[in-house]
Structure prediction request, 331 residues.
Amino acid sequence: MGKLTFFTAIKKAVEKVTAKLWTKNAVTFLIFFILATLFWLMQAIGTKKDLTIDIPVKYKGIPNNFIIYNDLAPHISVTIKDDGRELLSYYWFGRPDSLVIDLSDKFKPNGGTISFPVKQLRNEIYATLPKSAQISSFIPEFIQINYDQLAEKTLPVQLQGSYSLAPQYILSDSISIIPAKVKVFGAQIVLDSLTHVNAKPFDKPNLTSNTTFSENLEPINTVVFEQEKVDITIPVEITTEKSMEISITPINFPKGITLRTFPATVTATFSVGISKFSNVNAKDIFVSLDYNEVIKKSCIKYPLQVNSTNPDIRNLRISPSEVETLLEKDE
Prediction:
């Protein structure tokens, strides 16, 4: 009962306040206020006004082998005169996102200052304006660019990183870097101290196929790179085993002595990348027995020497690795 009485009292108080505020005079005042505001707004948008807008600026055509000493203006301020309603529409819907200043062919070998007149952008800005609009001013009127030319040097790229291959996989060729050399620009005294540039470290574990990726070059203070990335390719392929019969070649045997071995040939077994399988033949493997080893000691069997000059042959072994010998004197 007490709560009901309290809420009833609040309701009556609100009704009294509303009745006093919402009088005939208050309504009349509100209507005239709205009409006055609308009249002022119509007057404002129907007369010539000035509008200043900031338009971001982008720069292109700056060569890598030049350094700019001052900060470039990030935007220009343009003051436009037109009817208020046209300016309002332009402000919200018509103004350009940015302007582009092309500095191509403006840099001279010995350095200097470029003074770019912003009024050269007038036609580009007018193309976005209502036909009735006029440009009153630009700030700044000129964009100053203080620059100098840098020395140039071409340096090789060195890799920093690690990789591992899955079992039975090998490198099918050398790791390639494209480009293998890059142009760098900087003060001559700095470039004279540089012998190479480094790619950032990478880690590529357990590779099972050709892998190509891009890697950034490590930055060098006060030095500008012609390009900041290189493409690295690690060529990977699976291996297979191959076997072939190889004849034993006697070496350092004097004339008049003929070597006979038992067996006369051995089986060479090795691993080779699948792409090079058909390129390997018996001429790539050399199995020999040295006369100087035979006469050193009397043995039933003598060990053979095996080697190959073909870099595609891996894990080379022969069977048997020892042979019996018979030396015969020629008549």
About this structure: The chain is about 20% helix and 45% strand.
